[in-house]
Amino acid sequence: MPTRNSPDLLVIGAGVVGAACAYYAARRGLHVTVLDRGSVAGGTTGAGEGNLLVSDKEPGPELRLALYSTQLWRELAVVLPSRIEYEAKGGLVVASEEKGLSALREFAARQTEAGVTAEVVPGGRLRELEPHLAPGLAGGVHYPQDAQVQPALAAAHLLRAAGDRVSLRLGEEVTAILTGAHGEVRGVRTPSGDLHAPYVVNAAGTWGGELARLAGVQLPVRPRRGFVLVTEPLPRLVRRKVYAADYVADVASDSAALQTSAVVEGTPAGPVLIGASRERVGFDRSLSVEALSRLAGQAVLLFPVLATVRAVRTYAGFRPYLPDHLPAIGPDPRRPGLLHACGHEGAGIGLAPATGRIIAETLTDGELPLDITPFRPDRFGGGEA
Amino acid sequence: MARDRSPAELVGAAPDAAFEITFDGRPITALPGQSLAAALWAAGILAWRTTRVGGRPRGAFCGIGHCFDCLATVNGEPNRRACLVPARPGDAVTTQEGHGHDDLAVR
């Protein structure tokens, strides 16, 4: 086996996005070192539900990225072990009243024009799809392309499947970005020494803004906290990913205040996961009883049967969001050699393969699968930090 | 020369009169203040649940409410921690299969 002094690429962040960047770069023949100050999937990836959604995205650049990523996840599901718990289960968005349903129908019609498969389900047929749904809902839209994965396992198996070309350095924090005479990236510094490479990918998720600052550029990534409530193990009780139509509005909202809208899904392991809350409170990890009680209440409105089972634990995470709710993907013209792959907000698990593929194609002068102009990392201006 | 040194003897307990509970329909004697797990153990019963995936037997492990291994169906309610639930006269403990919520499953 050949020994190498330095890799072609350093990926900062061992979440699912960093893992996907490493995976696709390795498949293009690059040697990659992945660094993380914590563990694999130790940040936002491990705090997610594993949503691979097209249903919550309005037509535009993020939906195009999601549709492409959905296709890549289907391919990955064949290559990666079944332990990643990939389920092409579909999503069901429901509206309690006629007014909400007509807005949902209109939204779905626009999505359909953009390539999404969406089927309107009348209220009377909802319980054929989901027998435990509350009676009396106005109707919904079924999205067969929505899927789910166990995010921590998916990140870990992506890294493993990348093979010998990827090496992993955990528990190592990047303290500086090394640059050359012309400002170009030369590597990174960690407490155990300097690592050299011509390219550095910022896959630091919610902490991507800090890493950008180390590189001397601005990227306004901010945390948006979310809680997930976990029930005791149950048999298959919810077939799809089921959520209330208000969720789409909450995702797109710019409000800092607490927002909750129930997203309910079963898992192969048994527990039902109940999301999703959103609030901007910095990196505060303290438990919000209000958020949890609202989630529980809204979940029971959708699925009254949940009132008879126990919620046994909860976890919180920080979605990395940028002001226009789009990720930053691609080279940073302000710092040659630096690329960004962060800021995916609550959609990072779903968008990871497309992001990784774009990074790999960029680095190997390959063909980009879609226009990445909307994701330009320097679009917020600010120049150098 | 073995001596019978039960926990009750060791602490010099003087409990009130014993009463009856059932395990899978079979009568068992319990003492006031005893947990269901303690009463089951005293009757020589070590397993009252089967695991979700492999169907393997489970009973009390930590005994202090932390590990959730001792889950049992008590008076029809699944997932009660037998090590924490005090025995009451007439309690019906039944072996819990897996998550104990088969009735909720959709196919």
UniProtKB/TrEMBL annotation, chain A:
PANTHER family reported in the protein's UniProt record: FAD-DEPENDENT OXIDOREDUCTASE DOMAIN-CONTAINING PROTEIN 1, SARCOSINE DEHYDROGENASE-RELATED
InterPro entries: FAD-dep_OxRdtase (IPR006076), FAD/NAD-bd_sf (IPR036188)
Taxonomic placement: Bacteria, Bacillati, Actinomycetota, Actinomycetes, Kitasatosporales
UniProt keyword terms in alphabetical order: Oxidoreductase
The UniProt record lists the keyword Oxidoreductase: yes
Protein name (record): Oxidoreductase
Domain FAD dependent oxidoreductase: 8-361
Pfam families in alphabetical order: DAO
UniProtKB/TrEMBL annotation, chain B:
Top-level taxon of the source organism: Bacteria
Entry-linked Pfam families: Fer2_4
InterPro entries: 2Fe-2S-bd_N (IPR042204), 2Fe-2S_ferredoxin-like_sf (IPR036010)
Record keywords, A-Z: Oxidoreductase
Protein name in UniProt: Proline dehydrogenase
Organism: Streptomyces nigrescens
